[in-house]
């Protein structure tokens, strides 16, 4: 049985640093140790030492480099998330340069990928602040044991109504969750628009990686692109909002503008653009910090759309779905594994199936 492990703290977050560079271990240790809410309990030069220290020290969070001798960080992460799942923050210069590696790390269950602190004093202060905030957020996450070699099989049943439109919003933990969700949906799903909070440099590769794994066509959305059944559109993370214009037979609109709910692209902006579809729309809010999407999902529900939320037990961070639920925006909550069938029922398939 996969039992979720949720961390709640009335003490400093205990962190183990894993990096083959002695100087970088010292830098990370100094940064993290300067935060009164964080305690650095140890440091390891490679995964083999890290494995021993994890057993001895039982840290709350691991910071993990990618390039290390013997076993690289991605290989270690995959083994760790199968055998002893825990919150992991990938901290590597490589994840900043190679987005495929960063996306693979998040697919395997890393809470976040950030670059190692570098640059002048101002850049170092910014990076140090980000590192500490990311580690503390990771400590509040729920980590599940997942078999990434498990064969995904889409539910069988009548073809979903092609006149529906699906809109999905996700943030922290969303990469892993979207891989799980979309690989368990059939190829001919209704047009599906996705806003996943992630750096702009990552979204094109994220769409390409999903396209390689998923039965449907997954594309990096472009301005003016018509929406079609059997296609998932990933919002570019290039400081543009993604909206649907013209309803079911309409097109993608990418636009500049101020951040909405603190984000650009914003889930709220996407959901608001689907309100006019009324009961032809299905809105889904998934794992993530903050409240982006709650207001837009509430508007969708008021207009007659089916609105689904990922439940607390299966979220890495139960922030966005909780905010939507508190607002009364969620029609039903489901576990990540149950969401595919719930979506298909909302789209006219699997009628009568539990």
What does this structure look like?
There is one protein chain. This protein is of the alpha/beta class. The chain has two domains: 11-143, Rossmann fold (3-Layer(aba) Sandwich); 165-346, 3-Layer(aba) Sandwich (Rossmann fold). It is built from twelve helices and 16 strands. It has helices spanning 22-33, 47-57, 73-83, 93-97, 99-108, 121-139, 174-183, 203-213, 267-273, 294-303, 320-326, 339-346; strands at residues 5-6, 13-18, 38-44, 61-64, 88-91, 112-114, 142-143, 165-170, 192-196, 217-220, 231-234, 241-245, 251-255, 281-285, 306-310, 332-334. The strands form four sheets. It has a seven-stranded parallel β-sheet with strand order 10-11-9-8-14-15-16, with helices on both faces. The chain has a five-stranded parallel β-sheet with strand order 3-2-4-5-6, with helices on both faces. Helix 1 links the parallel strand 2 (13-18) and strand 3. Helix 3 packs parallel to helix 5 (99-108) and helix 9 packs parallel to helix 10 (294-303). The chain starts with a strand and ends in an 8-residue tail after the last helix. Mean pLDDT is 91; it is low at 1-7.
Rg calc:
20 Å
* Beta-strand content: 15-25%
Strand order of the largest sheet: 10-11-9-8-14-15-16
Quickly name the level 1 CATH class of the largest domain: Alpha Beta
Overall number of strands: 16
Output the helix-strand order. EEHEHEHEHHEHEEHEHEEEEHEHEHEH
Low-confidence stretches at least 5 residues in length (pLDDT < 50)?
1-7
Number of helices: 12
Question: What is the count of structural domains?
Answer: 2
Largest sheet: 7 strands, parallel
Mean pLDDT: 91
CATH superfamily of the largest domain: Methylesterase CheB, C-terminal domain
Cα-to-Cα separation, first versus last residue? 21 Å
